[in-house]
Amino acid sequence: MSEEKKNENAYQAKNAWTEMGEEERKEVFAFNENYANFLTENKTEREFASAAIAELEAAGFKNIEQYESLKKGDKVYVANRSRALMAAVIGEKDLKEGLKIIGSHIDSPRLDLKPNPLYEDGEMAMFKTHYYGGVKKYQWVTMPLALHGVVVKDDGSQIKISIGEKEDEPVFFISDVLPHLGKKQMKKSMSEGISGEQLNVVVGSIPVADEDAKDKIKTAVLNHLKSEYDFKEEDFISADLQIVPAFKTRDAGFDRGLLAGYGHDDRVCSYTALEAILDVKEPQYTSVVLLMDREEVGSMGSTGMQSHFFEDQVANLVDLYYNQYSELLVRKVMQNSRVLSADVNAAYDPDFAEVYAKHNSAYLGKGIVISKYTGARGKAGASEASAEFMGEIRGLFNNAGVIWQTAELGKIDEGGGGTIAQFLANYNMDVVDCGPAVLSMHSPYEVVSKADVYHTYLAYNVFLEK
Ligand code: MN
Ligand code: MN
């Protein structure tokens, strides 16, 4: 037998499962059980934000309005319209030395209800939807769906809705044509096989008894909504109602090493970032976690990363920390800050090997992925991390025993994507993209490796702490 020689100068990303001992394996599974439950219970940005606030308050974080001044060790959070959130722990060093920021997003691709969603056709009542974010429309038909969100009445009162998650609750669904009559459909391209206007959700089928009623099934649904939730048709106009997959996040594979569920992008980074700041002890720099909304549609809007929300909050921190506001101080805090743009990368899929660049792909189980740049076609749209910052992060992870890998998103000419990195980089901060790999990204049933989830948490925690 010949002994295989290892070249000590060669680089090979490690598999986190191979590297870990029995103790760590137990921690990995326990951490992921909590994550899976959190993901099952929080399928919208509103649900995520309110669950995060509950966890933060339980850990001693207080709403920024409760502080008259801020000092080392203080824990603070600010919510933005129930859909986005910033949490911070004031660090050892002076605030103007900069922040350590982890920025992620809590919105996921889904189907939103149209402003006038309800109609009747073919002896069924249906909801019209408008998809949100990058979805492959054909993936959303013939599976159990749930309805989540909030309805705001014209007096300002709110009705929270969640139907389809509990065993005894009904689910909703979108139909597809039977193969016997699907000859023409099957010849269409996959992006045309199911159109946006065909993503109509079936919500009822029993007509009202009233002989004279027009649209008897629609009427029955309206009666039900009135008696169960006390809202009428016009109230749909002031509502954030989302259709999401009705299934739970579950273990996948004989060995239970993977987690399959809806919305890993980007709640896997948001959850691990949240846990990382909850567990931070005595951070050197002020730790900040940003849980943002609207990333899947370009980060615009008041709750997206392009809004002034974050700047406003840094101004608030400066004001409370120095007991004086100065724009120069705000700018110093900004330009000295360092950011992990916490978002997912695409996991190599052997069934679609042709779109991945083998030597620069992320693999399930090889730890958190550091991406020097995102973008598409010649790095367009990429903020790109500097060699210096890459070196700093690599060193930090190596010293802390974090398992990590590096990747681009697919082959150069296949496409690409972006994250919130560029918007934070605009503040003249050092930013790098950093999060776990996801298989079947943007599908209703995304998959991550439990080992990667855990090492993402470790990575975020050490980044905040040091
Ligand atoms: Mn994302
Ligand atoms: Mn995404």
UniProtKB/TrEMBL annotation:
<dbReference type="GO" id="GO:0004177">
    <property type="term" value="F:aminopeptidase activity"/>
</dbReference>
<dbReference type="GO" id="GO:0008270">
    <property type="term" value="F:zinc ion binding"/>
</dbReference>
<dbReference type="InterPro" id="IPR001948">
    <property type="entry name" value="Peptidase_M18"/>
</dbReference>
<keyword id="KW-0479">Metal-binding</keyword>
<keyword id="KW-0378">Hydrolase</keyword>
<dbReference type="GO" id="GO:0005737">
    <property type="term" value="C:cytoplasm"/>
</dbReference>
<dbReference type="GO" id="GO:0006508">
    <property type="term" value="P:proteolysis"/>
</dbReference>
<keyword id="KW-0482">Metalloprotease</keyword>
<comment type="similarity">
    <text>Belongs to the peptidase M18 family.</text>
</comment>
<dbReference type="Pfam" id="PF02127">
    <property type="entry name" value="Peptidase_M18"/>
</dbReference>
<keyword id="KW-0645">Protease</keyword>
<dbReference type="InterPro" id="IPR023358">
    <property type="entry name" value="Peptidase_M18_dom2"/>
</dbReference>
<keyword id="KW-0862">Zinc</keyword>
<keyword id="KW-0031">Aminopeptidase</keyword>
<protein>
    <recommendedName>
        <fullName>M18 family aminopeptidase</fullName>
        <ecNumber>3.4.11.-</ecNumber>
    </recommendedName>
</protein>
<dbReference type="GO" id="GO:0008237">
    <property type="term" value="F:metallopeptidase activity"/>
</dbReference>
